[in-house]
Amino acid sequence: MTNWNKYINNYGDCYVSLEGHELRIGNEVVERVWNISRGIPVVMSLLNKSTNKEWFTTEDTHDWLTNQPKKYAFYHSSFINEDMLSLNVESAAGDDCGIARKHLRVEVKLEYKDSIVNWIHIVYPGLPILRTYIEVSLKDGVVLSESVSESSENDEGKRPHFHELTDDYQDSFPLEPRHSGWRSVQFVDVTDDFDNLVSTQSGLFTRREHRFIQGNLLFVQDHLSKEGLTFIKEGPTPLDYLGGVSSDFFLKGMNVFTSGFGFTSGDLNKHRTLTTYGSTVLLWSGKEEEALAALHAYHDAIHIFNGDKDAFIMSNTWGDQSSDGRLSESFLLAELEVAARTGVTFYQIDDGWQSGTSANSVLPGGAWGKGYYKHNPDFWTVNKTRFPNGLEPIIASAAEKGIQMGVWFSPDSLNDFENWEKDSQVLIDLHHQYGIAAFKMDGIEFTSKAGEENLTKLLRRVLEHTDGRVFFNMDVTAGTRSGYYGQLQYGSLFLENRFTGKFGAWPNYFPHHTLRNVWMLSRYYPTYRLQAEFLNVSRNVELYEGDVLAPSACGQEYAFAVTMFANPLAWMEQTGLSEESVALLEQIVPTYRAHQADILSGHVMPIGEEPNGTTWTGFQSVTAGAAVTTASSASGYLLVVKEYTTNSSQSYRLWNLANVTLQLESILGSGTQEQVKVDGGGHAVFELGGGPFQYALYKYSVLPN
Fold first, then answer.
1. How far is Cα 247 from Cα 226, in angstroms, rounded to an integer?
2. Beta-sheet pairing, 115-123 with 129-138
3. CA–CA separation, 410 vs 184, rounded Å?
4. Residue 293: which of 281, 302, 285 has the closest Cα?
5. Are 672 and 699 in contact (CB under 8 A)?
6. Which of 256, 523, 534, 557 qualifies as a FRET site for 1, CA 20 to 30 Å off?
7. At what angle do helices 329-342 and 392-400 cross, to 10 degrees?
8. Are 563 and 569 in contact (CB under 8 A)?
9. What CA–CA distances, in Å, run from 186 to 289, 342, 445, 495, 518?
């Protein structure tokens, strides 16, 4: 048994301590402990210090992995299979380019025969959140054997559901409670082809059962103590797995493993240094409200809400399907004149502003995804044919109107984004020359973990060289990309392309589909990091003939209203709107904008029924008193949405409220209630007359008893 050099450091209440053979990392509410006396760290403890709840068992159990004698914290036999030669601990405060809450970042460097493993931990002051990921570097001259099979001898001849994890995991959790349940959440992207974005599974832990789980989130609760854990796999959706990954978690008996490094030994031979997907654990206690509040705290820790960058209304012309055919100085100047009336805060020029031609252009022979500089060395300079005076007149007009500008950009995927530094300089120069503050990142295609890491380097370099004044709209509509829980904390998600015109063989824009996707995601993902589109509902009416849920049947105001608890995206040509629609938006958008940052800075959660076009549904943003069910100080916002239904009232179950009366301030919509009573079960009845497709935006506060 080896004792390593003693190391102690802290930031606020966060600390790391290496003494003897124990490594401790934690803060005032949570602590993890590992034994580092042998070749691979062994898990020992996960303690909820607020309740003194110990989650791990140190007993040897028969439901641990068959091929491993010890409860290793991580394992990959290709390059972590020899005695540890050295160990060194370093730590410092960080904030991830100013995006995250200040935290203590701990790096535990473990030297093995073939590799250096940098085992990285992040802990935040006062928060029950511990994040972990692993950077692996091969030593000079080392070439690893290619992995032949992930299966052990014991798996040979077995049916697939009897196979177990034998390798390739970056975190492990030997749970002590016997009577616990689990619920997993799987997300789907590639939204050009998929429109059902969230699904769940649930079960009980039992000693004999084991299963692989696909999904970024795994909620676990001890049914006796009501305490819980949430495990997060910080990686892509199953549609975007790389490096032999086939699952996010493996359950065996009472044990949980975060599975899938994201790269193979062959990948490591080629790239020499690679970093795993992340593994995070959150602690909570109570009901679903508390579990989701802990998840919200995690999102708030990795990306601090910034009203200037996280609460906006963006306009992008691509939704009217003219592609780049209309882009010119005169067209954009006319667009900005209308955008100034409709309340747009960001105007984004999509594909076509640049000299190079993309495959989506009305012009033939364009490039897509990779090889841009080979296609045209000046690909990312301003198109002189469309903009003979440069972008300066457009930027000046936008500035005069108080509108910020953004542009579309497609980083070069060639050879795992080998041009990432060159691409980052393009964006930095666009910001410094024109004040461009939002970049839509599109055409991304990962072929290995190295590509994802190089793209992350690109994003970070841009932030560092613009003092954090820009943000990114990360397109998740196609390709192999980072999903929802990958390295995407540096901006918002451009969630989906939806069109009233034919996209393929038919139109695919319905306001209730947009509403449903935001509603489903809002339980697990902060809506201020989602862009939700609203289109010009008067276009292509003939393609929806006879459809009672058609965009034109819903109306322009309703189409905008269902996006208000995310960031509304005017997916249209502003100049294509009727005067009636312009006047309508001119009236309602400023009122919404006065509250938008407050709405999105709260904890937004779904209320009512799952949208399908015929339900009562909506959202609640809890802005104060979220931690106390009957807090007299509770306040927030409600969006009550009545879809295609004739019912004039509906009971809703609200979050974190019971046995109180709410004072309602009507902000927008047709709601007329001034007060509503919430019963002991959290239910309140809301009324909306006037037929289908109605809504009410309320600000609420709790009246004194």
1. 27
2. antiparallel
3. 33
4. 285
5. no
6. 256
7. 10
8. yes
9. 19, 37, 21, 16, 15
Structure tokens at 191: 């939204």
Helix (H) or strand (E) holding 685, with range, is: strand 683-687
Backbone angles phi, psi at 564, to 5 degrees: -70, -20
How would you classify the pairing of strands 530-534 and 567-571?
parallel
| Residue 26 token pair | 């934690």
Lowest mean pLDDT among 1-10, 297-306, 485-494, 521-530: 1-10
Q: How far apart are CA 142 and CA 82, in angstroms?
A: 14
Say which residue the tokens 């949405």 belong to. Answer: 641
- Is 281 within 8 Å of 257 (Cβ atoms)? no
**320, β-bridge pairs:** none
Q: Which residues pair with 212 in a beta bridge?
A: 250
Residue 419 CA: distances (Å) to CA of 29, 371, 414, 416, 457: 43, 10, 8, 9, 11
Sign of the dihedral defined by the CA atoms of residues 267, 269, 273, 275, in that order: positive
What spatial distance separates the first Cα and last Cα of the chain, rounded to whole Å? 63
Separation CA 108–CA 88 (nearest Å):
6
CB contact at 8 A, 447 and 415: no
How many of the other CB atoms lie within 10 Å of CB of 505?
A: 6
> 112-130 burial by CB neighbour count: b if 16+ within 10 A, else e?
bebbbbbbbbbbbbebbbb
Instruction: Enter the tokens of residue 274.
Output: 């690679």
CA dihedral 218, 219, 220, 223 (to 10 degrees): -150
Q: Per-residue confidence at 156, pLDDT binned at 50, 70, 90?
A: low
Residues with Cβ within 8 Å of 421's Cβ and at least 6 positions away in sequence, in order, are: 457, 458, 461
The 3-state DSSP class for residue 460 equals helix
Strand partners, 27: none
Per residue in 447-465, pLDDT tens? 999 999 999 999 999 999 9
For every residue of 330-344, which 3-state class applies, written as one string?
A: HHHHHHHHHHHHHCC
Contacts of residue 308, Cβ cutoff 8 Å, sequence gap at least 6: none
Separation of alpha carbons 14 and 26, rounded Å: 6
Residue range 382-424, pLDDT digits in tens: 999 999 999 999 999 999 999 999 999 999 999 999 999 999 9
Reduced to 3 states, what is the DSSP secondary structure of residue 415? helix
**What SS3 class is residue 385?**
coil
pLDDT for 154 beyond 70: no
Q: What are phi and psi of 433, to 5 degrees?
A: -80, -40
For residue 41, give the nearest of 143, 130, 229, 169 by alpha carbon: 169
Residue among 383, 409, 401, 386 nearest 335 (CA): 401
Token duo for residue 533: 């589109």
Residue by residue, DSSP assigns 227-283 as: EEEEEEEES--GGG--TT---SEEEETTEEEEE--S--HHHHHHHSEEEPPEEEEEE
CB 164 within 8 A of CB 155: yes
| Cβ 182 vs Cβ 219: under 8 Å | yes
Is 675 in contact with 661 (CB distance < 8 Å)?
Answer: yes
Three state DSSP letters for 14-38: EEEEEECCEEEEECCCEEEEEECCC
Mean pLDDT of 251-260: 96
Cβ partners under 8 Å of residue 259, min gap 6: 165, 168, 169, 170, 212, 245, 247, 248, 249, 250
For residues 481 and 488, what is the distance between their CA atoms, to the nearest angstrom?
10
Q: Is 179 exposed, middle or buried (0-12, 13-18, 19+ CB in 10 A)?
A: exposed
- Amino acid at residue number 326: R
**What is the spatial distance between Cα 74 and Cα 69, in angstroms, rounded to a whole number?**
13
